[in-house]
């Protein structure tokens, strides 16, 4: 978007509303009176214009409250450029500042993905001579959340994890006790950056070094991270500890565990956890269904795989569409595995026999489906 388009897209100030707001102020208004009028305004542009107008009034000086309201209103409206101008004015006056004000600045800068500005505010707080302006646990948690949000690349997470680790060390060195959010952020960050052993170290320090016990999120992050590395035995140990605490794993943790067990050759355990997921009302994704059925077919037999699929449908765990998709995928896998040993006619006869025995499907409809599958394998997935 060019400069002219950006200028045209900017909202215009409602002069009448601004004039009405000005008339609500007494001749020699105080910062508290200005704050109340600014708070009552729904239009962020009116609020900004009141702030700028008051700055030009004789013998008036803004305080923390008026600056805080202006920054909040502009941040909520995503008017980050205008908010930045007020932030610069605040930073230029050493007497204006509070922990809550600086935390709001950091929060809205992280929302705008201006992490450099957020870190600059943090350093300003760190160097402040006023004790009530120093960083608090809320400051660090806001920065932790921003550094870990919307990042799925393990390399990027690895790079940001160095910054998070440094912030965490500064927090502890400054005498701030980590809370459950801070510790879970460290665990999640280490898992996302593929440093699962470091995540386990933080987990085992909870309740011993830090006066904070793990919650369900702590266990979920670890189970997912361990399964992603194929450490199924360790993941099951964490699951057992989680169960002793009466926590129920999330859908993501359950799916990771079931997939890892199935791929690791423990299909019976995988199926057991599959039923447990359904009992605990956790969502089973399509990849988990496909992995378990494929591994049952590979490690046991096609008959067992079809039997499991039928049982899933009978218990209403999979709907008709999902059942058809999984059946087509299983049939494709069987064709792929036996095409060098048997003819297509033999494979079709086998499937007809199995499905007729299990589901009593209409033979003409079934034959038509398999003819379509052989001609266009992807058609049966639509």
From TrEMBL:
Family: Belongs to the PPR family. P subfamily.
Assigned keywords, A-Z: Repeat
Protein name, per record: Pentatricopeptide repeat-containing protein At2g27800, mitochondrial-like isoform X3
Protein's UniProt keywords contain Repeat: yes
Top-level taxon: Eukaryota
Gene3D superfamilies: Tetratricopeptide repeat domain
InterPro entries: Mito_RNA-Proc/Resp (IPR051240), PPR_rpt (IPR002885), TPR-like_helical_dom_sf (IPR011990)
A GO molecular function held by the record: mRNA binding
Repeat positions for PPR: 215-249, 250-284
